[in-house]
Write a structure and sequence with these properties.
Number of strands: 15
Number of domains: 2
Helix content: 40-55%
CATH topology of the largest domain: Rossmann fold
Strand content: 5-15%
CATH architecture of the largest domain: 3-Layer(aba) Sandwich
Distance between the termini: 31 Å
Structural class: alpha/beta
CATH superfamily of the largest domain: Glycogen Phosphorylase B
CATH class of the largest domain: Alpha Beta
Strand order of the largest sheet: 5-4-3-6-7-8-9
C-alpha cells in the first residue's frame, strides 16, 4: 500500500483590525544564495502583520535567526547517500552535471529527505500559503498533497529556470507517487505564480512554458556612506569592482580565480577593489598589485556608486546589483547558473563573458569593456527598467491575493 500522510484542513485566516492575517511558510534549500531572494518577501509580509516561518536546513540557522524568523529545520540526505552522487557528478561531462544534480540531488534525495518535515509543518502549523525558492521541491509536493496554495520565487534567470527545472520533473513525479499523488509532469510548477527579480531587458526574450513571471524591482539599498571610504584605493583612475562571491575560496573548481584576476589587473590604468568573502587564502601565491585593494567584505551598495565596471562570477545577487547600479560588467562564470548569466550578458551587449578565464583573456576583456560606451548605455537602459518595476510591496500584495483566491 502506498504511504499516505494525513491531509491538512486549511482553516480560515484570522482577522486583526479588519485584515486577514496569513501564516506563510517560506522554503529554501541549504545555500545562502537560495535563501536571500526569499528574505525581502518574508520581511514585507511580516511588516504587514502576517506570521512567517522559514523552512530550511540547519546550514541556514544563523541568517534565518539574524533576520528574526522562526526556523523549521529540514533534514538533509546522509553523506552516505550524497558522497557517491558527488563522485558521479564529478565524472560527468560538464553539460550533464546540472541536469544530474537536478534529477538526483535537488528533486531527488534532498527533496526526499525534507518531505516528512515539510509535511509535518503543514499539518501542525497549517499555513495559508507556501512560498518556495525554485530549487526547493519538498514544499511543492507537500503543498500539492495538502491543498495549500503555493508559489515560487525564482533564483535564476529565465534561461536557466526553463532549461534546468524540467530536468527534475521525473524525480518530482516519483516523490508524488510515493505519497499517493498522481504524476503531473511538472504541471504544478507550470501553473504556480512565479516571482523574479530579473528584468525583461535581460531575459525577457526567453520563452516560458508557464505564465509570465511577476517581475519585481530592487529593494531600496543602504544609503552610501559620506566621505572617502577606507577601502577605496587612492588615485583618480576608474574603479573596477572585482568579486567572485563568498564561497569561491572554498571550492576546488573556483579557488584559482582570485590569483587569475590579480594577475589580470596588474599594471592596468585602473584602481581595483577585490572582495573575497573571507581573508584572501594564504595559498593564493604571489603579491597583490599596487593598484588593488583586497578586502574580505564590503557591502555592494557602498561600492557601486564609486565603480565604473564590475568583474564577477555571474552570481545572481552580484549580477542584479550591478544592473541596478548601471555598471557594465565582465563575467567569468564558475559553476551553476553562472554560465547562462554570462551568456545573456554577452548576448545583450551588457559586457563581456570570459568562460575559463586566464589572466590574459580577463585582462583583454576588462580593457575592451572600458573602451566600449555601448555596454554602459545598454546596462543603463536595464537599470532604468528595474527602477520602474513594481516594488516588493506590490509583489506581496499579489502573494496575498493568490492565497485569498485559492
Amino acid at each position: 500500500m502506498t504511504p499516505q500522510r494525513a491531509r491538512v484542513t486549511v482553516i480560515a485566516m484570522p482577522r486583526t483590525g479588519g485584515k486577514d492575517i496569513m501564516r506563510v511558510l517560506f522554503a529554501s534549500t541549504g545555500g545562502l544564495g537560495h535563501l536571500q531572494p526569499l528574505l525581502p518577501y518574508a520581511r514585507a509580509l511580516r511588516e504587514r502583520g502576517h506570521e512567517v516561518r522559514i523552512a530550511a536546513r540547519d546550514t541556514l540557522t544563523e541568517p534565518i535567526a539574524k533576520n528574526g524568523f522562526a526556523h523549521v529545520v529540514l533534514p538533509t540526505a546522509d553523506d552516505a547517500v550524497l558522497k557517491p552522487l558527488w563522485a558521479q557528478a564529478n565524472a560527468l561531462p560538464k553539460p550533464d552535471v546540472l541536469p544530474f544534480y537536478m534529477d538526483r540531488v535537488f528533486a531527488g534525495v534532498v527533496a526526499e529527505a525534507a518531505l516528512p518535515a515539510i509535511g509535518a509543518a503543514l499539518t501542525d502549523w497549517k499555513p495559508h500559503l507556501v512560498a518556495r525558492e525554485s530549487l526547493e521541491f519538498a514544499s511543492l509536493i507537500a503543498a500539492e498533497d495538502s491543498g495549500v496554495p503555493h508559489l515560487r520565487v525564482e533564483v535564476h534567470n529565465a534561461l536557466t529556470e526553463e532549461g534546468l527545472i524540467p530536468e527534475g520533473f521525473a524525480a518530482i513525479d516519483r516523490a508524488r507517487a510515493g505519497i499517493g499523488l498522481a504524476p503531473d509532469a511538472g504541471a504544478a510548477i507550470r501553473s504556480e505564480p512565479a516571482f523574479t527579480s530579473f528584468p525583461a531587458g535581460f531575459d525577457g526574450h526567453v520563452a516560458r512554458a508557464g505564465g509570465p513571471a511577476f517581475r519585481v524591482g530592487p529593494s531600496p539599498s543602504i544609503p552610501a556612506k559620506t566621505g572617502r571610504p577606507d577601502w577605496l584605493p587612492p588615485g583618480d583612475d576608474p574603479l573596477i569592482y572585482v568579486t567572485f562571491g563568498t564561497i569561491a575560496q572554498q571550492m576546488d573548481v573556483a579557488r584559482h580565480i582570485h590569483r587569475t584576476a590579480l594577475d589580470a589587473v596588474e599594471g592596468l590604468p585602473i584602481r581595483v577593489l577585490m572582495t573575497t568573502g573571507k581573508p584572501l587564502d594564504a595559498e593564493v601565491p604571489g603579491p597583490v598589485p599596487d593598484n588593488t585593494r583586497v578586502e574580505a567584505f564590503v557591502p555592494q551598495a557602498e561600492v557601486f556608486p564609486h565603480a565604473a565596471a564590475a568583474v564577477h562570477h555571474g552570481g545572481s545577487g552580484t549580477l542584479l546589483g550591478a544592473f541596478a547600479a548601471g555598471l557594465p560588467m565582465v563575467v567569468t562564470p564558475l559553476f551553476a547558473d553562472q554560465p547562462d548569466n554570462a551568456a545573456l550578458v554577452a548576448q545583450g551587449g551588457f559586457g563581456r563573458a570570459v568562460p575559463d578565464a586566464d589572466a590574459a583573456s580577463l585582462r583583454a576583456a576588462i580593457m575592451d569593456l572600458l573602451g566600449d560606451p555601448n555596454a554602459g548605455a545598454a546596462v543603463s537602459n536595464v537599470a532604468a527598467e528595474m527602477a520602474a518595476l513594481p516594488n516588493i510591496t506590490a509583489a506581496v500584495t499579489a502573494m496575498e491575493s493568490h492565497a485569498n483566491r485559492a
